[in-house]
Amino acid sequence: MKHTTIMNNFTFQNPTKLVFGKGQIELLPELIPEDVNLMITYGGGSVKKNGIYDQVTNALKGREHIEFWGIEPNPHVETLRKAIKQGKENNINFLLAVGGGSVLDGTKLIAAGIAADTDAWEIVLNGVTEKQIPYASVMTLPATGSEMNNGAVITRVETQEKYSFGGDYPQFSILDPEVTYSLPEHQIACGLADAFTHVLEQYMTTTGQSRIMDRWAEGLLLTIIDIAPKIMANRKDYDLMADFMLSATLALNDFIRMGVSQDWATHMIGHELTAIHGTTHGHTLAIVMPGTLRVLKKQKHYKLLQYGERIFNITEGSENERVERAIEKTEEFYRSLGLTTSLSEEGIGKDTIDLIVKRFNNRNVAYGEKRNVNGKVAGEILVSSM
Ligand code: NZQ
Ligand code: ZN
Description:
Bound molecules: 5,6-dihydroxy-NADP, zinc ion
Order of helices and strands: EHEHHEHEHHEEEEHHHHHHHHH
Number of strands: 8
Shape: globular
Low-confidence stretches: none
Mean pLDDT: 97
Distance between the termini: 33 Å
Structural class: alpha/beta
Largest sheet: 6 strands, parallel
Number of helices: 15
């Protein structure tokens, strides 16, 4: 039987205002309400080197606000607690994140922490209870889609744990493709891998649920495959970066997942690799996704065939040969970005696999569209990614 699933019921509402294009940071004074107590959050200082900090401060000249610096990649709850304390002391009721996914994700937790008396890590584990204070972003790194979604991923360094929580969406996000020109090559590669994998997590499940969601996802995959080599060759082309930025946003802003099954096992395993080894998020996905496809190729058989044909023009050979080819082409795509795709290339060994299996088992979790990626299957995926 080819089509066993139908479209699921769903509710869709994405309230984020997207402000896209050259020079749009100028619009900040109109976008941020007049009478708020504003805190602007930043990362480690890239914005001072590339002129984004100056653009933001010039636009907000005369507007009183405080700044919080030092939200690190894979934002640490230990740092965010300090921002929450400072926000409470200053009666902050609006946040503007200026940075990549980490600054914005961290700000989502600050927005929840300021509104509540609960400890920040409790919020990550148990969810938001009090309504978050409003927040918005100037997004400087196309990758996570955090600029137009309600998720955030937070790390607790003390215990090497990394989990996500959900809440409100940003009020607005400014996306100026020119701010990406200063990104290092590795961050661009990881951003392309992240956006590509977000589409796969919501697409590479089963066929026949929704023609429109399939075509929308395939449009994003084809676009990313088309622009990736051009971007890796020229990282300062406005039109390419505009397509990249918009692809990353559309890949994870709820648009391509209406009524369809989702996987996310690769992300959950990837978060463990980041938590334990600090591997950049997008890079973990390049390592895990090929393994996920190999281990679950029977379950994903018909979707892999559809993907192979529509994305990579794979039409020759037996069904099983076409499936293998589609998986190879996926791995080749990640490698074409300059990323490695196996644990051994990163010096990660069996002890890490055992630890991740143990963690999944202790938490009694199972991911994937069939909720069958438990500790045992996660272990198989990681062994396949050795
Ligand atoms: O901290 P600064 O100095 O700003 O430097 C950053 C950071 O070192 C730098 N950077 C950002 N914009 C730049 C720039 N450098 C030069 N020019 C620019 N324009 O890049 C480095 C990495 O930044 P980071 O924010 O960590 O990267 P990314 O946007 O990829 O975010 C990764 C985090 O997002 C989470 C990941 O798990 C990870 O913690 N994710 C969030 C999701 C969500 N909210 O929906 C979904 C994703 O699947 C992902 O899990
Ligand atoms: Zn991701």
